[in-house]
Design goal:
mainly alpha, 3 helices, 0% strand, flat
């Protein structure tokens, strides 16, 4: 599969990438090479191979949940750099 300019522009928009026209040709070539490599993986015979859920056979050591004393709402907000009555104030992220 070859990446065209329209596809590159769509991917760049979705990934919030910015690059100039000079770099777009190289970017299209690189993305096409990546897709070609992934398509080549389709040729591998995986019949009878169990899917992996992890690359390690080690298990996570987890502890039991236990109730412990915690900070109350007032104490937590006391350390906030910006706050209003009940909430932390943070910079706007989404429009």
């Amino acid at each position: 599969m070859k990446i065209d300019q329209a596809t590159l522009n769509k991917i760049a928009h979705l990934a919030r990438l910015e690059f100039n026209e000079k770099d777009s040709e190289k970017m299209m070539q690189d993305m096409s090479n990546i897709i070609s490599f992934v398509e080549k993986l389709q040729e591998v015979n995986t019949e009878g191979v169990e899917p992996l859920t992890t690359m390690s056979h080690e298990l996570n050591a987890v502890r039991e949940d236990e109730v412990r004393p915690h900070l109350d709402h007032t104490q937590v907000l006391r350390n906030a750099p910006k706050k209003d009555e009940n909430y932390f104030r943070v910079p706007k992220v989404l429009e």
